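Box S1 | Example of a co-folding query
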Amino acid sequence: MAELSDIANEFIRQEIKEFLERPEEIARNIELFARIRPAMQDIAAALIEGEDGDVDQLTKQALEEGIDALEIMDDGLIAGMGIVGIKFREALIFVPEVLACARAMKAGMNYIEPILSDSGVEPVAKVLMGTVKGDLHDIGKNLCIMMLRGSGFEVVDLGVDTSEDEFIDAIEEHRAGILGMSALLTTTMPNMAKTIEALIDADVRDDVMIMVGGAPVTQEFADDMGADGYGKDALSCVSLAKKLAGEKV
Ligand code: B12
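Box S1 (continued) | Returned holo structure for cobalamin
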């Protein structure tokens, strides 16, 4: 078992000591950051501080040093956002601070995106991706899109706050085989089910395989609403899309 002192970055050690209270979250984050190499801890720390300029610099530097883009995304950016999420939940920080962190995440993603999106192969299948109505969270959706593109999918990004009609119009316009929906709020999760119902009413449900995801979404919830698959992160989004593309043809 790792110890707090195994984490090289002093700011990260301090964040865990000062802001994390739940024993399982303390243990999980100590394990995580003790495993992560110092350069990635520095990126996570800059993201937690909402320093977009530093995240920009450190990401660029890490790529120049030959660190893999996927490692930077998982161990630097997503790991840092994990701590931000906990602090936000505990009301230790508020929307403006989280927005600064989201901006910092974007600064890093600007470098990662072209690398992960550049597969250079013929599209495996076309995917529509949108965050559902009432929901403005798009970081996770955008990571999924990046990974899908990098794995050879053509992706149409429908953005955030996507209404049922917008999903229906997009299915009709783009003739995509897969539809992905993202939701981060327990209050907007039901809009996934409402969208599926609207698709049935519009007679387009069978035109697409539907995958869903987002932090509060579960396999059980996905099954209950009649989705074809659930993915817990961007990597599983890709394997799920591959599986659904295979089932569609
Ligand atoms: C960043 C953030 C914001 C930013 C969003 C910026 C942006 N451009 O996205 C801002 C500040 C705008 C924001 C606003 C709000 N937020 Co907010 N936010 C977060 C935070 C801290 C991080 C979310 C995130 O980006 N995570 C990192 C990404 C990488 O993870 P992810 O989104 O889960 O995505 C991964 C997987 O889920 C999966 N995935 C995602 N989508 C899909 C889709 C498919 C098809 C598949 C297969 C997989 C998949 O793959 C992704 C990559 O690995 C979370 C806390 C948390 N722990 O989630 C709260 C959180 C989601 N927010 C919350 C709340 C309450 C709000 C507000 C209501 C706050 C307010 N009082 O105004 C508003 C709502 C605005 C709205 N209408 O949407 C709550 C939700 C509580 C709940 N149970 O509903 C959370 C959980 C914080 C908390 N614990 O209180 N937020």
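DSSP finds eleven helices and five strands in the chain. The chain has two domains: 4-117, 126-248.
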